């Protein structure tokens, strides 16, 4: 564990310089300045009339999610007698379908906890964050996270939690094979060759190009080759030369026999099991891997490092963030104040930090980050990383199609398709 912490500190130093997000609240060049909430939150009015109803649909992250939200609901309703809060927890497999069905039937929840927001915003269904977040709560949120929910200069959703990615490796395997931790793509190929020569039963490198994580794989390779999904003006650049080169490199790793045998179907969880069992030497994955491996009963000597890069480009960590959003349902001023009260209650430093630690993710607030880092030293380096990660362009309304599109490109390329032709077609379909 001490080795992991030391390595993560080194990763932090690199990523804090390399990643695109920053703690400067300046938004992306194409989006203008994020709106800032005005006024502070006050407890919802306690008049003698009917209670203010607030309903929330929340994603299920783990085994304890349901119980935590049930306790939260009880605590909130006890604290605010004039508000009746109901929270419904739905699995990630079902939540999008359930919510979209309700939206189409004019039964959208007041508050939704999910990852994607752009399609709802594009359809005019959401309220700007300035209308439902107090100044105090807004000030806690990482600016780099808020920037990911900016459209036309306005913040439309707020972050609830996040994760970051780095390179994990089996120290014993690399030592036995006589290789150093790779920092470049050339070094990675050489390390894979040496590991195969050492033990052909071990997969040197893990790749997940499934519908679960294929977009992440695409991001790892293009970002660490100097490519991107969009240019500085926000135009899609899916078929750039850098992107083509990156995905061709990833496919070549598979074709060279350096990876797990079925990247189109073997999820990151399968890879994490292989890593824990000593059957996989290296993989890119989230901060939760050590916990996953330990909970799975595995005993393995893990190290962590920056993601390998090509062409002298700095290493970039991928960040994944989920959100809260509020649907525009013609709420009264009293209802909006009650919603502000909900978020103030949720983002209370102690309560929020306990939730993040329970779920095993990373905080979206600076104050929560301080508490999490001090409570769990193993999380401290990751807290530093996540505040400066690079994120998917989810604020663009085409992202849903792009996400599935890059996965389709990867899976077609695994079957022998030409990467450039596939990306050209995707670019044409998305950008015209």
Describe this structure in words.
The protein has 432 residues and is of the alpha/beta class. Residues 9-48 have low confidence and may be disordered. The chain has 18 helices and twelve strands. The protein is globular. Helix 9 (214-223) packs across helix 10, helix 14 (349-359) packs across helix 15 (366-375) and helix 15 (366-375) runs antiparallel to helix 16. A hairpin with a 2-residue loop joins strand 4 (150-151) and strand 5. It has helices at 2-18, 65-79, 95-104, 118-122, 135-140, 143-146, 171-177, 185-198, 214-223, 241-255, 268-276, 289-295, 333-346, 349-359, 366-375, 380-386, 399-414, 419-431; strands at 52-60, 83-91, 111-114, 150-151, 154-155, 158-170, 203-205, 280-286, 302-305, 318-326, 362-363, 390-391. It has two domains: 2-20 and 168-314 and 397-431, 3-Layer(aba) Sandwich (D-Maltodextrin-Binding Protein, domain 2), CATH 3.40.190.10; 52-162 and 320-391, Periplasmic binding protein-like II (D-Maltodextrin-Binding Protein, domain 2). The protein starts with a helix and ends with a helix. The strands form two sheets. Strands 1, 2, 3, 6, 7, 8, 9, 10, 11 and 12 form a ten-stranded mixed sheet that branches. A two-stranded antiparallel ribbon has the order 4-5.
